[in-house]
Amino acid sequence: MVPARHASQLAGVAGRESYIHINMFYYTYVLLSQKDKKHYIGYTENLKKRFEEHQAGKVDSTKNRRPVELIYYEACLDEKSAIKREKYFKTGFGRRFLKDRLKLDILPESID
Question: What's the pTM?
């Protein structure tokens, strides 16, 4: 919820709509399969729901690799940024970033 003083500032911008639009986040995330120790990289608008889908076996890429653990995620302000970040994580540079960020012994192997 936006405090009143901030709400009036947002709504009072000249030439803009007079309502407040709260941005939804998009999430880029990394799962670790407990079964084969491989990583899955994806993006979603609803991280909790998507993780539950992975755990329930509703995602083809991970249904035979359950259980999975959410080991990393980033919030992005728009879908385009989340997709771009997902694609980056799937590159050599992105895997190196995740290795360093997560203090992994080896580069993550993707299962998507």
Answer: 0.75
Q: What is the extent of the structural domain holding 95?
A: 24-102
Question: What pLDDT digit, counting tens, does each position of 42-94 carry?
Answer: 999 999 999 999 999 999 999 999 999 999 999 999 999 999 999 999 999 99
Query: Is residue 92 a part of any domain in this protein?
Result: yes
DSSP 19-77: S--PPPPEEEEEEEETTT--EEEEEES-HHHHHHHHHTT-STTTTTS-SEEEEEEEEES
Residue at 14 is within a domain: no
Measured between alpha carbons, how far is 104 from 111 in angstroms, rounded to an integer? 17
Cα within 13 Å of Cα(52), Cβ side: 4
